[in-house]
Amino acid sequence: MSKTIGVIGGGQLARMMITPAQELGLAIKVLAENEGSSAMLAATSVGDYTDYETVRRFAERVDVITFDHEHVPLNILEKLEAEGFNVQPSSSALRFAQNKLAMRQKLSELGLPVPDWAEVNSSVDLQTFLDKHNGVAVLKTPTGGYDGKGVKIVRSVEDASDWLAKGQPLLVEEKVDFVRELAQLSARNVSGDWSSWQVVQTIQVDGVCSEVLSPAPHADITSAAIIAKRIAEGLGVTGVLAVEMFETQDGKLLINELAMRPHNSGHFSIEGSTTSQFEQHIRAVADLPLGDTAPTTAFSVMLNLLGVDDVNTFVEHYPEALKVQGAHIHTYGKSARKGRKMGHITAVSNSSIDEARLIALKAKEALHA
Amino acid sequence: MSKTIGVIGGGQLARMMITPAQELGLAIKVLAENEGSSAMLAATSVGDYTDYETVRRFAERVDVITFDHEHVPLNILEKLEAEGFNVQPSSSALRFAQNKLAMRQKLSELGLPVPDWAEVNSSVDLQTFLDKHNGVAVLKTPTGGYDGKGVKIVRSVEDASDWLAKGQPLLVEEKVDFVRELAQLSARNVSGDWSSWQVVQTIQVDGVCSEVLSPAPHADITSAAIIAKRIAEGLGVTGVLAVEMFETQDGKLLINELAMRPHNSGHFSIEGSTTSQFEQHIRAVADLPLGDTAPTTAFSVMLNLLGVDDVNTFVEHYPEALKVQGAHIHTYGKSARKGRKMGHITAVSNSSIDEARLIALKAKEALHA
Questions:
Q1: Which of A32, A292, B85, B343 is the S-S candidate for B331 at Cβ 3.0 to 4.6 Å?
Q2: The model's pTM
């Protein structure tokens, strides 16, 4: 009998896990938020992932629980685990992806490179940190933030008064003067085998990933992989782990964010690697041997397709865009909305990163994106 | 609004069309024969494809009808077309894939190279043909044959007495003394654009495809592509066209069989080509621009996974087989049955066809196949 993978969350990440799961001889079921979700094809249940009974009923029908996002409340996962359900990554790892204060605390304990940080419970805490860092800092809500939400730059206590008023602990970090951002994708299976892809450069616009260059140009950064491995093992991560990092003027790496699931910075791997991050995630959580992560092409560039208005779903422009040879267009079956992550393009080249980028941009233009 | 592709037949070919259709921004529905079909994931209807009302109800819910197999009765397709439904390939092309007598007739009219052949309606017809061909010939039922079924070698009228007794016209062909078999995959979209992959060598065992080498070694055979193009255009084929050919001692090509759908000989293209035959078929029938068919690797070898008994579904051996780096294992979600096409393995190499073959064989052994 083949195992069934259950994915909580019906977004594009779940959508892109469907085929690899099938190809690995597994069944896959998705608990989606609503009817029109990206992973509709395998969405066998629609319901609220913050409701214990809903999640439990879903868990009973699958062999492994994994995730499209990290928003399932920790106490629900802990209860499932206590009842013997197989949750990958486990709640003990996932808590560090859910809570940035817990993450900073743990990484510091492990001696891993992080920006200077502090927990903020009052305006005094914040002022103390600002005084130590030339009057500027990055303030974050420990939970629930994504794509630039839950993050702001503050130069005074007044800048933070609305967040401080909520009475919840906040995370404050030094504003790192980085030259660029990198991401190290890797995966660890339940048995503990670990494997990484080559490090990539990510380009963010307004806090949202816009572009990924693979490999990161002029990067000789085995240290990125070493950091990722120490995190994966130190935190007991299973499945794909994305480590977003800052590279500083002097070539130092500082860990920014963690995600314990396939990640936007790894979409290039669908075409650019022998094993995609989606296949690897399924292998890892099902405790199958990890696949080969060797690149299939010298260079690849991924561009996100963000919604431009309430009309253009990009699909209507496929007849033009598909003429651009070398560009691989992916859309997620979403309705149009300005700023929404609706798809991505990956272009590959064996000549140069610039060629790959040019091909991707041509396809993007043809999509009116 | 995105178009919906409707596939009649729920086998592995439909299964492998699901993801490409989604990636092309299309919806896909499948009319499957039964509940446990390979393409279950998108099987929105289960019913009898020889029943006009069943097929018509399915057609009403999609924008383009296409096929997993060529067994839908021609009169059903003609009726659908008369009512304005969009059938790709059309009945006027598909009749040549359904009826081998019609196919031989048409290819001869087009002046394309075929083995010597005749229509047989009596034992006298057959004896005349045998007398002309040293007393040996290949007898075929014009319709319904596949994987070696509906084909037999005859040396006397007696060898054919059971088939002759049925009173249906038969096709008789010279037994070609070939050195090997080749297959030329190509695709033509509704607008008439045409594109081919490199020609492959196929190795058959007991009339069933066992192995495909891509590209066909030592082949300098642009004539294969020219033949395929003339067939696609001459017969008005849309979608993928597979032309199976014999290569004779003196390097001549003779057309054996045609299939107007993705074909076993093209499975290598999932990993071995920029655009897979499944994606290309969807592009072609949806009248989108055709994709790039350049190889992604110098060599690839595809081995079929035929059932070995009623127990081994191969999936249970994945933990071992997935350790074989470079082998891509595909299974079709079928229950185990001896001789059944249950999956395939494609291995790629940039060094040699022998290396690719060795990797594929290793994975096959690990699956106990």
A1: B343
A2: 0.90
